[in-house]
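Q: Convert this sequence to structure tokens.
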Amino acid sequence: MALISKPEAAARLARTIISDIALYNKEKIQKGIKEDNLFDVIDDEIKEGEKLYRSRVEPDLIDSTNFYNKALVDILVMKAGNIESEIW
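A:
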């Protein structure tokens, strides 16, 4: 399988991976946001997702963009704004 070389496709893959993490770890994410340790709570899932992302996207594109981390914030943090937390 050829590596992804188009920025739009790489961004879409990042969002898909993070969306899957969000879908399958709702309780962990809610707890992590409430307790202000989200990235510690789902560290394994984030690393596994990043490994998948890196295996599918050209290294030069990964190095020149921040799609995976942007998807983490957009999908895991921003969409959780309704969860009561001391962080906001």
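The chain has a mean pLDDT of 90.
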